[in-house]
């Protein structure tokens, strides 16, 4: 895991710890069809140099990321586009398959009838090496927590960057920014 100070504090200036939660905490990402929509969207942002992702985990009802928006891209725009794209595709898949899960997302709001994501994305600026270390470890250990028990070891969880850092396995779904470039291990 991450053990020492940032190599260059300016490198950390724009890194964020993000949490996005599914509306009503529905375990939507227990189904690979919906997880794949998330992975495809993250791949789009990394492939098009809009976002660097240093660590991530896709849990059944939420996502944690350590990210840095690239160039002049505001995180708020990435967040908006990510949620819009993923919501539209998830809703399409739910309707296409007559999935009864869609009923859990029905809302009575002026601007929508179905809501996939909670409105607010939890966002914290990464401000120190200790904070980065804490959040990376939290992300990677999340699937092992007693309330989830998805795997016994962090590196065994497929939808996480843990295997990249703990076993040097090549990222499966999209490119990762190797945080070891800015943090000594």
Could you explain the architecture of this structure?
With 185 residues, the chain is α+β, with helices and mostly antiparallel strands. The protein has one domain: Transposase IS200-like (Alpha-Beta Plaits, 2-Layer Sandwich). The chain has four helices and six strands; from the N terminus they run βαββαβββαα. It has a four-stranded antiparallel sheet. Strands 4-5 form a two-stranded antiparallel ribbon. Strand 2 and strand 3 form a beta hairpin. Helix 1 runs antiparallel to helix 2. The longest helix is centred in the middle third of the chain and has 22 residues. It is globular and about 50 Å long. The relative contact order is 0.24.
